[in-house]
Amino acid sequence: MKYQYTKLRRINSPLFIASILIVFLSFSQLLLAATDLGDDPQFQRGKKIYDRYCSKCHGKNANGEGRMTKLYRRKREQLPTNFTTGTYIDRPEDYLRMIITDGGEKHSMSKYMPPFGDEINHAGVDDLIHFIKRTPELHGFSGDTHSKNKQ
Hints:
By secondary structure, this protein is mostly helical. It is 54% helix and 0% strand.
């Protein structure tokens, strides 16, 4: 009987309750971010463009683990960017636009990043940049980049 009482006391401890609360709040923040992005039409348009042009290298979850990543690892080449980590949240939109439209090699990035300027129009590039900058929110990174002034 004493053992069971000790177990219950641990479950009712303030530390245990605080831990459960922290886990719950963390998951609720992720769900809210996912819900907000689901209601964002520009994010959804950007995701469609990303899925069509970018996911082969950058991965369908934007984590840098697309089908081509195995090849780049074998060649010991620069790997595709993981957009879930927040690396590009604060980068100027003009910088991202140049890389997307001109390709990576022209801007000292990967030579395997092709130019998409002839395939994706200006509005599509805007949507893609919006997707790239907001994707980290799905993975627990906060950043109010979508309300910042465009640079």
